[in-house]
Design brief:
alpha/beta; Purple Acid Phosphatase, chain A, domain 2; 6-stranded mixed beta sheet; 7 helices; 12 strands
Length: 318
């Protein structure tokens, strides 16, 4: 079980004591014949209690396998099944190494052609130097657990901002040990019987080495075969040309909280407000943003369930 934090402790206190305190107040209102006020308060308290339990304790620990089919005019060859995993945030509440191993098993059961990892494997905001040795070991073991992923065309990945804040070199080394090929402003050609394609990966926007460079990455694409581009942030999508068949991004957590009527009150970046979750078509350019697995800032997810994704990328039907 992932370590609790102060917010979760307060949530558990509220879960246990809240109904007791509120029931005493409601009984007092009913005894004083303020019936409407008493039952109204009961309805509000029950709704708030249920939403809090769901958002802080239940939904963040679930896992949805999302299936999406995307047709792109820039894609050629046979359809490609892409397994997408993002924002695992190991060592944050709700996510530990055991959970990563379980989601790897779920991904393997889907039999993707290729797996792409979109960054933020580290939970929390502190650098490695400020963490205990046990927490550092947990984080790196969470990355190395990707070694168990199985797909004919391999596992590819990029880094995210939490990885840069923690220690990008240590995370990159753990990815290598975990059998993940890191693409940091680089592209690689992938051969397959159904038609070759390219995978490009952009550097993290908070990288201490270099920013995400779309043009530099695509310069390594030396033929007309289609390209799938990985980026942790959706923000670089503004620079992606139509030549790219699909851009995959994470970072947003689908807002992490998605309230009825109000919507998503928090955006993780300027582009996260424009492209918070799901599939977007900008004049034929395709972007898919996954909500990822873990949590950040607050240990809550509400109507933004943790997910891994199977994207089937294909050419448009004739």
């Amino acid at each position: 079980m992932a370590r609790p934090d102060g917010v979760l402790v307060l949530v558990w206190i509220g879960v246990i004591l809240g109904p007791i305190v509120c029931s005493l107040l409601i009984r007092r209102l009913l005894r004083s014949r303020r019936i409407f006020l008493g039952w109204s308060l009961a309805a509000v308290v029950a709704s708030g209690w249920a939403c809090g339990v769901w958002g802080f304790l239940i939904e963040p620990a679930t896992l949805t396998v999302r299936h999406v089919t995307i047709e792109s005019a820039a894609w050629r060859g046979e359809p490609l099944r892409i397994g997408v995993i993002s924002d695992t945030h190991v060592a944050a509440p709700h996510t530990d190494v055991k959970r990563i191993r379980r989601l790897v098993e779920r991904m393997n059961a889907e039999h993707p052609d290729v797996v792409m990892l979109l960054g933020d494997y580290v939970g929390g905001h502190a650098p490695a130097s400020a963490r205990s040795s046990a927490e550092q070991a947990e984080i790196l073991q969470g990355v190395e657990a990707f070694r168990a992923l199985r797909s004919p065309l391999g596992t590819w990945g990029v880094l995210g901002n939490h990885d840069s804040w923690y220690d990008d070199a240590a995370v990159a080394a753990a990815m290598t040990r975990g059998g993940v090929r890191l693409l940091d402003n680089h592209a690689a050609r992938v051969e397959r019987p159904g038609g070759a394609f390219w995978i490009g990966g952009l550097a993290d926007m908070h990288s201490r080495r270099e920013p995400p460079l779309v043009s530099v990455t695509l310069r390594e694409v030396t033929d007309a075969d289609p390209v799938v581009l990985m980026t942790h942030w959706p923000d670089p999508f503004v620079e992606v040309p139509p030549r790219v068949a699909l851009t995959l991004a994470g970072h947003t957590h689908c807002g992490q909280v998605n309230l009825p009527i109000i919507g998503r009150p928090v955006a993780a970046s300027p582009a996260s407000e424009r492209w918070p979750c799901g599939l977007y078509d900008e004049g034929g350019r395709k972007l898919f943003v996954t909500g990822g697995v873990g949590v950040s800032i607050l240990p809550v997810r509400f109507r933004a369930p943790p997910e891994i994704v199977i994207v089937t990328l294909r050419a448009p039907a004739a």
